[in-house]
Structure formats: structure tokens, C-alpha cells
Amino acid sequence: MGRQEAAPASQGAVPAGTGAASTGTAGAGTASGRPADGVPAVRLTGVRRVYGQLAAVAGVDLEVAEGEFFTMLGPSGSGKTTLLRLIAGFERPDAGSVELAGVDVTREPPYARNVNTVFQDYALFPHMDVLENVEYGLRVARVAKAERRRRAEAALDMVRLAGLGGRKPVQLSGGQRQRVALARAIVNEPEVLLLDEPLGALDAKLRQEMQFELKRIQREVGISFIYVTHDQEEALTMSDRLAVFNQGRIEQLGTPVEVYEQPASDFVAGFIGVSNLLERGGRHFTIRPEKIHLLADGETAPDGSHVERGRIEEVVYLGMLTRYQIALEAGGRLTAVRQNLETAAAEALEARGRTVNVAWRETQTYDIHNENRAGTSTSP
Ligand SMILES: Nc1ncnc2c1ncn2[C@@H]1O[C@H](COP(=O)(O)OP(=O)(O)O)[C@@H](O)[C@H]1O
Ligand SMILES: [Mg+2]
Questions:
Q1: Residue 49, ligand 1, Cβ within 6 A
Q2: In angstroms, what is the span from residue 82 Cα to ligand 1's centroid?
Q3: Which domain holds residue 205?
């Protein structure tokens, strides 16, 4: 009782009612069925995993709703993979509990958990064709042959590979192999799909394409996805909610908009986008680069904005945008971006070394109180 009531606003809403079932109530869902209404697909309570002196996962409380696209975002070594392995059952926690659909599975082996994992190095069986690869899990589960075939073909259809069932993995592109791995994971109809940096091996264009595909597939199959990435853009574009990890803890939990516009700590402000942290008059705040106006000579600031002088230290031309780094006379540095509407590249680059006025609206700044981190477990 009361687990949910102190949730800070920035934590983002779990659909109403998820706090109703108390910890340890078995039977709220079944191992194979969907959870009862309002029971989260995954609930972690005080989960810790220690390697020697290092707490890879240092106390995590988390609820992922049924049908939610949830992302764990954080730098390398922040504990994301360890937490996924704890959910899948490949690791046992040193403290805390893991519930799936309301059932405590902390002591259960991986095969007894209704989850599937897609890893970055999605090793397919090279000697089997695509259809056999996708059917493999069903064969192990002794599903009859005709049923197996039907479900594998439906899964291939879902990932847009219908007709390629007879190919061997070497006859596929990287993106197609990734789709086979996905089909293999969804064919068992798991309650939760865990994806550990599944697009890491693909080039930028294919990644973007697969991001849309993954969202579509998740909507169509309607199961919870827990998606691990270190790529902030990926996290912002795909997720219903995301958790930002740092040193085995959740720094912030919220919707993409909340986490981007209202970072809970310096770490989150810096990891998601550009930090732009300033101290002025006892306030510690951040302002996003796209909210800063660089004023041309003689240009007046928009009404009600705050103006400061600074020197342009660096200019980076990015095609669509130009990025400026500005050292402010009153102290601190800001990064500002400007769309290249009329400015030519040469003109933009010439700005280096100039003194300029920069302006922003107070309403576009966001105060950071580093002590108010959301989602960080203080309980054992
Ligand atoms: N089996 C292990 N033995 C010892 N240390 C480990 C083991 N697995 C992970 N770690 C350590 O735990 C920390 C978190 O690792 P990991 O969960 O893989 O992070 P991420 O996936 O966010 O990069 C890292 O410092 C890593 O070196
Ligand atoms: Mg990892």
C-alpha cells in the first residue's frame, strides 16, 4: 500500500490502478495468460545485483505496464543489460524481487518465465533456413508441425519477410537477419519482449527504418517491449516512457517529453541532448539549445526575454542546422542551434570569435534540483 502515492510528477503516469495489487499476491495473472486489468506486466522491487565491490544494479523499483513500449536508456556500464538479464532470469538478484504479470518469478529459471530476449548479436542457426529458425522455439515446446508452420509464417509476415522462409541466414542482409531474430522472439507470444540494443549492428539509415518497424510490430502484437539503448534519439522517438540509468540506478523515469524538457539532474540534462547548465542569481537551471536566440547586430530581443553577451567559441555546420558554442561574459557556456534558413555555410562559419547577444525567455528555462531524483530506490 502506498507505493504509488509519493510518485513525483516527473515520474510519468503508469496507467491508473497499477498500484492496487500488493507485492507477493500470486495468481493475479497466470504464467501463460495476460495479467488481470491494472496488473503491471513487469514489477521490480528493490532489485540489486552486485559483482564483487560493484553494484551493477543498485536498487531499482520499476513498473512496466501491459502493452507499453518502455526504454532503458543510459551510458555503457550503467547496468541496463544486467537488469534485462535479471528480468529474463539469466541472473538472480542479490536483493529485491521480480514479478511478471503479478506473479513473483524471482526464483524461477528463464524457461519458466513468459519473456523472450532479442540480443544485439542475434545469432541465428546458420544451417537452418529462415522458417526453421523462427520455428525453433515452437519445436522445443513440442508444438505440432502444422501449427508451428502456421505461426512461424504469421510471424514472418509480421516482420515483412513473407516469402523468404526458405533462405539461409547468409543469404540475408543485416536488416533482414534482425527481422528474423525478431520473428523468432515473437512467435512464442511472450508476455514481455526484452530487446538489448537490437539495432546496434545496423547502419544509420537501416536503424531508423527498423525503429519505425519495431514500433509498428509492438503496436500490432500488443505486448510490452522493454528496449535497451544508449542512443538518446532512439529512446525519445520510440518510447511510451523511458528510464535514464546511471551507475545502476534510475536517475529519471518519465515520458520522452518530460525527460527532455524537465531533466531531474545534471546527469540527465547532459545525457539527453546538450546540458546547457547555468547558475544565475542562486538558480541552477538548464535551457535547450533550440530555445536560445542568437541576435544579429542591431536585432532586438523578443519581448520579455533575458539578454546576455557572449563570445562565439565554436561553430559547427551540420547541414540542416548550425551549432554554436558561446562563452557568456557572466560565466558559463551555452550551445545554441540555428536552422540554416538563409545563412550560407561560409557565413555561419565566419561567426567564430565574434561577440554576440544571446536571448532566452525565462519560461524556457528549467530549474534542476539534483537531490530530487525520481524512481531511485531507497528501500532495501
Ligand atoms: N558477469 C559480470 N561480472 C562482473 N562484472 C560485470 C558482469 N556483468 C556486468 N558487469 C559490470 O556491471 C556493470 C554494468 O554492466 P552492464 O549491465 O553490462 O551495463 P550496460 O548494459 O548498461 O552497458 C559494468 O561495470 C560491468 O562491467
Ligand atoms: Mg549492455
A1: no
A2: 6
A3: 9-261
